[in-house]
Specification:
This protein is an alpha/beta fold and 210 residues long. Helices cover 25% and strands 32% of the residues. It folds into two domains: 111 residues, Periplasmic binding protein-like II (D-Maltodextrin-Binding Protein, domain 2); 88 residues, Periplasmic binding protein-like II (D-Maltodextrin-Binding Protein, domain 2), CATH 3.40.190.10. The strands form two sheets. The chain has a seven-stranded mixed sheet with strand order 2-3-4-1-5-12-6, sandwiched between helices. Strands 9-8-10-7-11 form a five-stranded mixed sheet. The structure holds phosphoribosyl ATP (PRT) and zinc ion.
């Protein structure tokens, strides 16, 4: 791999994690000069540059060696890690530190009128999600044969549209579920923003004092 003399950090361009990630870097004493396209920011205080991207692209940028560090929700990281594992690819990155913001949970939610007795209730049902790998793993662990319906967004309206009977989506306050007459039935993954690094660099970060 070609070595660079400047470190590159990838963060979300716009969205829930972009503000807190920028604040964190600022508090660490890093200042950046914004470029016109606002995708690449040159580090002015230290040889550390910033790449502003979609959060879903961050694990791949680390895996490919394009960036040295990233800030991303552990939900996105784990979803893509399970996908790599399923394809027989080696782990290319790992979370080196939890960052204390962006807290949420990936939960299965069902119509409010359902009586929920456990994962087996989903047998033969369609479950809509943007996290097919994490949901698939949880269904396998619980030996439940359900159909995973992959949607890229607006998962919460899938039952009303007749696309699925249940959903699996990120929840923080629970207001979205409530507004869609759904209720949280099972938490399948607890998440927050993490600092991600290439797997090979992780032992070095683990021994560093934070
Ligand atoms: O454009 P890009 O791809 O970069 O952004 P995105 O739209 O994929 O991500 P974004 O900005 O919505 O979320 C980024 C990250 O924030 C997620 O990957 C999580 O790690 C974290 N996070 C924390 C959340 C939430 N809380 C959250 N509540 N991400 C999404 N939600 C959504 C959820 O999908 C649902 O629609 O908010 C709704 C539920 O919220 P409540 O409060 O009504 O329960
Ligand atoms: Zn995204």
């Amino acid at each position: 791999m070609k070595s660079r003399d400047r470190l590159r950090i990838a963060i979300q361009k716009s969205g829930r994690l972009s503000g807190p990630a920028r604040d964190l870097l600022e508090r660490a004493g890093l200042a950046f000069r914004e470029s016109r396209d606002r995708l690449f920011c040159f580090g002015e205080s230290l040889p550390i540059d910033l790449l502003l991207v979609r959060d879903d692209d961050i694990p791949g940028l680390i895996a490919d060696g394009v960036c040295d560090l990233g800030v991303v929700g552990n939900n996105v990281l784990e979803e893509q890690a399970v996908a790599r594992e399923q394809q027989g690819l080696p782990a290319a990155y790992a979370a080196v530190r939890q960052l204390g913001f962006g807290g949420c949970r990936l939960s299965v939610a069902v119509p409010q009128e359902w009586e929920w007795n456990g994962p087996a209730d989903l047998a033969g049902m369609r479950v809509a999600t943007s996290y097919p790998q994490l949901l698939g793993r949880w269904l396998r662990e619980n030996a439940v044969d359900a159909e995973v319906v992959e949607l890229s967004g607006s998962v919460e309206i899938a039952p009303r549209l007749g696309k699925a009977e249940a959903i699996c989506d990120l929840v923080s306050s629970g207001a979205t579920l409530l507004a869609n007459q759904l209720r949280e039935a099972a938490i399948i993954f607890e998440s927050e923003a993490v600092l991600v690094a290439p797997a090979m660099a992780c032992s070095a970060y683990a021994t560093a004092s934070w």
